[in-house]
What does this fold into?
Amino acid sequence: MVSRDQRLRKRADFDHVRSHGKRVSDRLFVLIVAPSEPDQTRWGLAVSRRVGNAVVRNRVKRKIRESIRDIRCINGQDVIVSARPAAADAGSESVRSSLRQLAGRAGLTSPPAAVGSEFIGVKS
It folds into this structure.
């Protein structure tokens, strides 16, 4: 579960991210990312009635929450994950991979550490 201080909860916060954020999307989700406080990343979920009834929407939200726990992202971002109707039929692994790819495309994740002498300043 994402802790309370790591969630977007106010309408004004959602509006700010939607108006100033960068959007990336695929067939399951739309990710909107905007800069925020430098010491934390906050997440907001948006799952509309177009996705399905209350049971389906809650299932999709649980899958999203579980998937974002695994994403190691840089601090200082506000992120909205908006589900598309296709997310209702997606399995947990496709939700996880979709969110990882979108986070990478949005610049949320830090690049992997470079291994090799040419990257760490050692001359051969």
Observations:
- The CA atoms of residues 21 and 34 lie 4 Å apart.
- The chain has a mean pLDDT of 86.
- DSSP finds four helices and four strands in the chain.
